[in-house]
Specification:
Chain lengths: 132, 275
């Protein structure tokens, strides 16, 4: 049998930012019984742009009762190592450099619990309910 | 005739001037940036003597651009928002639907050229998504993009890809490194400088201490998809340097007692049947 020189890392407990964003997208969908749908969208940055972070993921909320009206809450720009990256809160007009999972999770908690985000969710829910 | 006006009013109370401009140019859709006025204040200017029937069609979420219209409010459907960008579908009683992608993008004070390019790229993706959802590309981009028409974010294929030539834009798209990018036509190229038939730009800033000083910038722009070109005439786009009898320029530069930006007005003959 061939001897393997590889050391395969244990990724059982590794949660990437994309995984965490997907979980949160599902969480908002479940918490609102599908009135609001969390959605994850990937994008890439072209070679003309700065090379620090070549990929990105955004979290959007879509509202089926409003003809799939969509709001992009935040963007996370990163590279293949996922950290560091930059999280942009589109409605708080803030950007934060993220160095690890803990900082990422804390930033998400701050954004999701902010008054602006709560107001956005309230507006979307009330308009969706009115249109239902 | 569909008439749109955009103005970054720099947080000034220009409700009277806004109303005069909208009446003078028969504006149907008004888009304002840096508007700190209440809805009521704007509507007093717009509807003045009670003869107008403008109303604000608010975005479901906070937005840096605000929409007002004298068409039924149901004509302006929200498609997507991201704070700086608001994409609407305009479905006028006469004529077919157009997509209005309005924006007040990041200032050069807060974003370097790479970030501005990225902002253009993100807005382009929003527009493409809206066009796919709507099933057409009758799209107009309007707003304070905080870039000049010649900057990479405006011209780059992964930015707005906005060309100065209708013939080039009418080719529809081009393939770069295996990926297809759709064109916009940018009529603002023809509004650069003092031989443009209007003011030399839309924003004046004398950055006296810098080696690179444009003095006049054209940050406020209107872009058109080639599919809208049959409904656009060159004289249908104006950078206003006067509202009624009030000049918006003083001593050859923008009179900042109004705004530090000039308004844009565009007419599209979309009441003709769109193909």
């Amino acid at each position: 049998m061939t001897e393997s020189f590889w050391t395969i890392p244990d990724t059982t407990n590794l949660r990437t930012p994309v995984t965490i964003l997907k979980e949160q997208a599902e969480a908002v969908t479940q918490a609102t019984n599908g009135v609001l749908n969390g959605e994850i969208r990937a994008y890439s940055r072209n070679s003309l742009e700065r090379a620090d972070f070549k990929s990105g993921t955004q979290l959007a909320i879509t509202v089926p009762f409003l003809k799939d009206y969509s709001v992009i809450l935040l963007n996370y720009d990163h590279n293949i190592t996922m950290y560091p990256g930059v999280i942009k809160d589109n409605f708080g007009n803030n950007s934060f450099i993220i160095n690890n999972e803990l900082e990422f999770v804390n930033s998400l908690k701050d954004i999701f619990s902010s008054e602006k985000t709560k107001m956005i969710l309230a507006n979307l829910l009330s308009q969706a309910n009115a249109a239902a | 005739m569909t008439v749109l006006m955009f103005w970054n009013i720099a947080k000034r109370d220009l409700s009277k001037e806004i109303g005069e401009a909208c009446r003078e140019h028969r504006v149907e859709v008004l888009i304002l940036a840096e508007c700190a006025l209440s809805t009521k204040q704007v509507l007093v200017g717009l509807n003045g003597d009670g003869g107008g029937r403008y109303e604000e069609v608010s975005s479901p979420v906070p937005s840096r651009v605000r929409f007002f219209t004298n068409l039924p409010s149901s004509c302006l459907l929200s498609l997507e928002d991201s704070g700086k960008i608001s994409i609407r579908s305009l479905q006028p009683p006469l004529g077919k639907e157009i997509i209005i992608a309005a924006a007040h993008l990041s200032s050069k004070l807060h974003a370097d050229p790479y970030d501005q390019h990225h902002g253009a790229s993100m807005m382009r993706e929003m527009i493409v998504r809206a066009e796919r959802k709507a099933g057409h590309r009758h799209t107009i981009v309007i707003g304070d993009l905080n870039m000049n028409p010649f900057e990479a974010g405006m011209v780059g294929a992964n930015g707005f890809h906005a060309m100065c030539d209708k013939n080039v834009a009418s080719k529809g798209s081009r393939v770069v490194q295996g990926r297809e990018y759709d064109f916009f036509y940018n009529p603002m190229w023809s509004r650069l400088g003092d031989d443009s038939g209007g003011p030399p730009g839309t924003y004046y800033f004398n950055n006296g201490g810098s080696l690179l000083n444009h003095f006049w910038e054209t940050f406020d722009q209107i872009l058109l998809r080639p599919e809208l070109l049959p409904f656009y005439k060159s004289d249908g786009l104006k950078v206003l340097d006067r509202i009624a009898d009030k000049p918006l320029l003083k001593n050859g530069v923008i009179d900042r007692s109004y705004s530090d930006h000039l308004p844009l007005v565009i007419q599209l003959d979309t009441e003709r049947e769109l193909s």
